[in-house]
């Protein structure tokens, strides 16, 4: 039952406390990673293989020492990486702390709800300002429907990054697994861009994040289907998931939109240029009320994950 109780405690801490307002380890990690980037980026005229190798080396230097340190302080207490010895109470507590710091379920809601509140009050300018904090696209041309769509997309996609990916790697490899996942995900957010600076240097960060999310994304899509309109979600996942540019976001967003019975995606403007994007889901375009429904879907999917992990922990005890 150690795994199930650890997950329950970490989820409760995230729900009650949210992200630490001061001294969050990821802030310090971001500063550390930025220093590694500055030191190891190298000349921009270097050959592509050299730039990619520098990015991979920076990723390894940023992530692996912390994973090894976590494995020494809090080795996995269950699963395939458990050494079979007695459960360590200290390691369990450190594991709960690591998972809590890796979760962002409450933060996800805290960023999405102000958008919904502004739209409900008829404050389109305020809604644009609020949604700009969670999306990278241009918000100036957005109407209420576009703001709603962008927010629902963010909630569905980040449900995997902020909650389910962390739960998966914690269940598989304990505290070292969740540290590996969260740090890799952070570096993807910092370096995983397809622009002139990061297309090669950030190549490893983007590919490794894709790899680490391969299983969690599909389990997230399944959880969304089970927590919503199941048949419609599975159909959208099957027929639309591969149309999205991201191999992991596509299944998650298609299944989530299908589970809600709404349409998301479509053209969006980035950096002043309109980009064609496929439409995901079925039904009417997402509306302001669907932001709260998307958060509810993430909550129900989280409950399903918790139930599965508790049952699995109990059966394996």
Automatic annotation (TrEMBL):
Protein name (record): Cobalamin biosynthesis protein CobD
UniProt cross-references to HAMAP family, sorted A to Z: CobD_CbiB
Superkingdom of source: Bacteria
Known pathway: Cofactor biosynthesis; adenosylcobalamin biosynthesis
Pfam families assigned: CobD_Cbib
Similarity comment: family membership: Belongs to the CobD/CbiB family.
Membrane topology: Multi-pass membrane protein
Single GO term (MF): threonine-phosphate decarboxylase activity
Database matches in InterPro entries: Cobalamin_biosynth_CobD/CbiB
Transferase found in the keyword field: no
Keyword terms, alphabetized: Cell membrane, Cobalamin biosynthesis, Membrane, Transmembrane, Transmembrane helix
Transmembrane annotation, as ranges: 56-75, 87-109, 162-184
Gene Ontology biological-process entries: cobalamin biosynthetic process
Name of the gene: cobD
GO CC aspect terms: plasma membrane
Subcellular location: Cell membrane
Keyword check for Lyase: no
Function: Converts cobyric acid to cobinamide by the addition of aminopropanol on the F carboxylic group.
High-level lineage: Bacteria, Pseudomonadati, Pseudomonadota, Gammaproteobacteria, Candidatus Competibacteraceae
NCBIfam families (UniProt xref): cobal_cbiB (TIGR00380)
